[in-house]
Amino acid sequence: MVDENAGAKAESIQAEYGRLEEARTGGVTWSKWGPYLSERQWGTVREDYSQNGDAWNYFTHDQARSRAYRWGEDGIAGVSDDRQRLCFSLALWNGADPILKERLFGLTNSEGNHGEDVKEYYFYLDSTPTHSYMKMLYKYPQKAYPYDDLVQTNKKRSRSEAEYELLDTGVFDHDRYFDVFVEYAKADTDDLLIAITAHNRGDQDAALHLLPTLWFRNLWWAEETPKPRPMLSVSKDGPGIHTDHAELGGYDLRCDGAPILLFTDNETNEERNALRSEGSSGQERDGASAFDESGGREKGFVRRLFFDDGASAQRG
Fold first, then answer.
1. How do the domains of the chain map onto residue ranges?
2. Whether the Cβ atoms of residue 118 and residue 111 lie closer than 8 Å to each other
3. Which residues of 221-255 are buried (b: 16+ CB within 10 A; e: fewer)?
4. How far apart are CA 85 and CA 230, in angstroms?
């Protein structure tokens, strides 16, 4: 059987060898940007400041959307620079969930009848050694995500029983979900092309909101953090976001069309999390529901797509 794409594949492999050699001998920073964003930062020892070492309960999934991390960030299909200062990932909303789908959900060690366990369906499909090309698939239900059902049902099961999986909840019945593919391709070391393709796999029309999100990791909580703080603002040349960082310099995130732009600060919502600190900005981490065009340190596009049953759409 003849592979009609054999020539293109060989050329692509040779080009990657060239990038690896440039990085090894010429100091070309092909790996500066890559899939360095955590799948889950909440519930880890990295963010645990509890008195008894209870990392699971000190920083929960419920808190993650409104409480700033200190030592890392997380996201779906995310990328960042190699020091995780500037981050990008995809948030989603199906119109039914009570919250945005910004990060993976799972059970803590005490909630799962077999211990901790992520309750999502996602697949890393491709990545070259220099991350010049990356591809990921995330399966997003069109019904409300069954957060409480997964926790409560698994809690009731014994160790001898099977785990209660996301598929068991019925949220994927009749194939009513979206396949969301996220692809990255590097035109240069600091030039990433991003394509987001969504497919309605169900038998009914459905809407999907895409919220590609760009933000700075909160490093300014430490007193020794250099000033000025990094900022995001509306790009002057066409629809997009401009970044301003003392070390990274300036970048622009471009988008086709005319999406809605939302700004907020990557700060803890102290009222929601019952935490105390000085200098609250009033533009907290969970402020995407409030429309603000003035600028901040966390920023996203909003795209609302309507799909006929079985239809697909791509945005970049």
1. 31-315
2. no
3. eeeeeeeeebebbebeeebbbbbbbeebeebebeb
4. 10
Q: Which residues are within 8 A (CB) of 42 and not within 5 positions of it... i.e. 6 or more apart? A: 59, 60, 61, 63, 64, 74, 103
- Residue 229 — very low, low, confident or very high, per pLDDT cuts 50/70/90? confident
Q: Which amino acid is at 86?
A: L
Q: Are 281 and 297 in contact (CB under 8 A)?
A: no
What φ, ψ does residue 115 adopt, rounded to 5°?
A: 90, -165
- Per DSSP, the three-state class of 157 is coil
Which of 111-115, 182-186, 208-212, 247-251 holds the top average pLDDT?
A: 182-186
155 vs 125: CA distance, rounded Å: 32
Number of H helices, E strands in the chain: 5, 16
- Average per-residue pLDDT in the chain? 87
Could you tell me the pTM of the whole model?
0.88
Hey, what are 100's tokens? Answer: 């945005």
* CB-based contact 59:178 (threshold 8 Å): no
d(CA 60, CA 147) in angstroms, rounded, equals 13
Average pLDDT for 33-55: 93
Is residue 35 helix, strand or coil? coil
Asked if 122 contacts 90 with a C-beta cutoff of 8 angstroms, the reply is: no
Q: Which residue intervals of the chain are DSSP H helices?
A: 6-25, 55-58, 61-64, 147-156, 270-273
DSSP per residue, 42-80? TTSGGG---SS--HHHHS-HHHHTTS--SS--B-SS-EE
Calculate mean pLDDT across residues 47-57.
92
The residue type of 278 is E
92, 211 Cβ separation under 8 angstroms: yes
Q: Which residue has the tokens 């391709």?
A: 185
